[in-house]
Amino acid sequence: MDMFEDAPGNTPEYTVSELSGAVRRAIEGEFGHVRVRGEVGRVMVARTGHMYFDLKDQRDVIACVSWKGQVSKFRHRPEEGMEVIATGRMTTFGPQSKYQLNVESVEPAGAGALMAMLEKRKKMLEAEGLFAAERKTPLPYLPEVIGVVTSPTGAVIRDILHRLRDRFPRKVLIWPVAVQGEACARQVAAAIEGFNRLSPGGAVPRPDLLIVARGGGSIEDLWGFNEEIVARAAAASEIPLISAVGHETDTTLIDYVSDRRAPTPTAAAEIAVPVRLELLTWLDGQGARLSRALTSGITQRGQRLRDLSRALPRPDSLLDRPRQRLDVASDRLPAALTRTVQARRVALSEAAGRLHPSTLRGMVSGRRDRFALWQGRLSPALLRAVSDKRNALDRRADRLSVTPIRREIAQGRRDLDQLAQRFEAAAQRQVSGWADRLAGLDRLRETLGHKATLARGYAVVHSDAGLVTSKAAAEAATGLEIEFADGRMKIGGAAPKKAAKPKPPEQGSLF
Amino acid sequence: MSNKPVAEMSFEEAMAELERTVGALERGDVALEDSIKLYERGAELKKRCDAKLREAEEKVAAITTDKDGNPTGTTPVEGL
User: Fold this and answer.
1) How close is the nearest chain A Cα to the Cα of B5, in Å?
2) Is residue A406 part of a domain?
3) Which site from A260, A445, A485, B36 is most exposed, i.e. has the minimal number of CB atoms within 10 Å?
4) Does residue B1 form part of some domain?
């Protein structure tokens, strides 16, 4: 009974699932359709395609979930940090005791929030350099095939085709896409990439120019062209790309990255191709100028030729004077030749007359005489020269004699002897002086030393302890030794007094 | 003067070359023989441009795609 003690009397009892179901019904009933404004928090798309995200304000958080089918219908995908108004119904998730908002659509909270988001994207892409002028490719002057990414129905493609037809009919490939709504951005990006993937010369011809076009609309309608994937696809396009989205006043993100922005689809067609008729007229003009230039070139040359040929003299008249000179010259030629030969002959005979053997002989004998004369003078001259040289040598040899040198040597020798004698005398004097001093010093030494005293009859007494100079020391000593002039004599240690006895008279005299 | 064969030139290239050729011929400072060559080249370029201008045929087709968005071919579009 204790177990049920606290049970309230008539409160119904639920199972967990019952209560959870009741809560769900209450919440779904109360909040079957709500619009809630908040900032998007973390966004997560599961593999199943369901999207989970948070909506929050300063204080609270509501968990949000959108099923795959709902997500695909979103006009705007929630992004973290975006201020949105979410529409849906509240529900619960029993297994986790959790309530959540099932979101059917997400709208940016006003144009301000949308523009703020766009601005953020623009800054990011600009920072990556996608808007840089050097990225822009020039458009072909006359494209062969034009690819148009737009809706296959509607005014836009019609306008483009009309204008192309007016100016220069071309091959046009339309890649049909949704130009608004959830699928728009994805399809447009895929179309740009698809056109770029076509290989030149393939079954489907690769365009050499792309136009991405859409008519005017609200900012929400044009929003697909503000999506990052579209901008990136356009920036990556190798085929030159013209963007023509909305009216002249609308600028979307794709306009910043395209190679050329056209204010309208019609304008895009005008940018795409030149006017054929104008070109034909121009070409005719060029053709005419070409012919005219050639013709006038030839005409001018013809005129010049005629002018020059008029100024040219007759060939015959050019030869008249030279011909006359020839006549004169040929008249004078034979006579001149004869005269020349005669003159040379005279000169020859004159020279031959002078040329005779006697003349040569005379020259030879003359030379011989002169030679003999020179020969006679040659020998005495040589002898004279030799004797001159010999005299000069003798004169010089006389002056060259050994006598003075001998004199100098004898003198030197005498000086040397004298010096040697003086040196010897001085040295001997010095040596005998030193010997005398040495002998004196030795004598002094002898007199000062005790040996001399010993010779005079004195004696010195030694003991083991050294010199004995007193009676007391002699008595204390164990043995004595007396030193005389001619040697030492031991006195036995047993009778020291006896040994000392013979000395006292001498020692006494000493004291 | 470009050495590219005229038959390989784009319209724009042929156009620019034609203008240069006409200009050179009009200046008249080329030898007679060269001026005839220039004329012949000019005529060839003009023919090329003319052919490109005559090729002005409109042909409109739409890309068909499979369900993954990959192009499968084209289908003619008429009446636009």
Assistant:
1) 19
2) no
3) A445
4) no
| Residues A54 and A201 occupy one common structural domain | no
Measure the CA–CA gap between A344 and A354, rounded to whole angstroms: 16
Q: What ipTM did this prediction achieve?
A: 0.83
Same domain, A247 and A271: yes
Minimum Cα–Cα distance from B56: chain A residue: A169
Q: Give residue B14's domain range.
A: 6-74
Q: Is residue B79 part of a domain?
A: no
CA distance A500 to A489: 12
Calpha distance A68→A73 (Å, rounded): 9
Nearest alpha carbon to residue A145 among A166, A121, A174: A174
Helical H segments across A168-312, by residue range: 184-197, 228-236, 253-257, 265-272, 276-311
Are A176 and A260 in a shared domain?
Answer: yes
Out of A161, A168, A187, the one facing B60 most closely (by C-beta) is: A161
Say how far residue A181 (Cα) sits from the centre of its chain: 55
In degrees, rounded to 5, the angle at the alpha carbon of residue A221 between the alpha carbons of residues A216 and A223 is 110
pLDDT tens digits for A215-268?
A: 988 887 888 899 889 999 999 999 999 999 988 888 889 999 999 999 999 999
**pTM (2 d.p.):** 0.54
User: CB–CB of A457/A509 below 8 Å?
Assistant: no
Cα(A500)–Cα(A473) distance, integer angstroms: 12
- Contact list in A for residue B59 (CB cut-off 8 A) is 171-172
CB atoms within 10 A of CB A480: 21
The per-residue pLDDT for range A161-183, each reduced to its tens digit, is 999 999 999 999 999 998 988 78
- Whether residue A170 lies inside any domain: the answer is yes
A158 at B interface, C-beta within 8 A: yes
Q: Which of A161, A194, A290 sits opposite B22 (nearest CB)?
A: A290
* Domain total in chain B: 1
Residue A487: give the domain boundaries: 451-491
Rounded to a whole number of angstroms, the CA Rg of chain A reads: 76
Domain count, chain A: 3
Radius of gyration of chain B (CA): 20
